[in-house]
Amino acid sequence: MKILYFAWVRERIGMPEEEIALPAEVTTPADLLAFLSKRGPEYESAFERPEVIRVAVDQTHVEHDMPIGDAREIALFPPMTGG
Predict the structure, then answer these.
(1) Are 47 and 33 in contact (CB under 8 A)?
(2) With the C-alpha atoms ordered 35, 36, 37, 40, is the resulting torsion angle positive or negative?
(3) Among 7, 8, 29, 41, which residue has the least CB neighbours within 10 Å?
(4) What is the pLDDT of residues 21-78, one digit of tens each?
(5) How far apart are CA 31 and CA 65, in angstroms?
């Protein structure tokens, strides 16, 4: 699965995107954030407050408890402000 990182999430992880084979138990964005946060200190820093991370599955914003299903792409980004 392609995971895209934006803004300070990308800066903390140190890359804009990556391909990851997700374990079967990762079925929601909440599961994904928990899984990613265990991949190393940079991920732990990026996802230390998972509740503020916005998620888009195949370019559609979703809540953290929605199923990922057969998504091809998941984007993770911090809250955005207008202006």
Answers:
(1) yes
(2) positive
(3) 41
(4) 999 999 999 999 999 999 999 999 999 999 999 999 999 999 999 999 999 999 999 9
(5) 9
- Interatomic CA distance for residues 32 and 23, integer angstroms: 9
| Side chain identity at residue 83, one-letter code | G
What global pTM score does this model have?
Answer: 0.93
- Following CA atoms 63, 61, 70, 74 in sequence, which dihedral angle do they give, to the nearest 10 degrees? -100
Q: Which amino acid is at 64?
A: H
Yes or no: say if 3 and 18 are a contact pair by the CB < 8 Å rule: yes
Q: What count of other Cβ atoms lies within 10 Å of the Cβ of residue 79? A: 8
Q: How many residues does the chain have?
A: 83
Determine phi and psi for 81, rounding to 5 degrees.
Answer: -120, 155
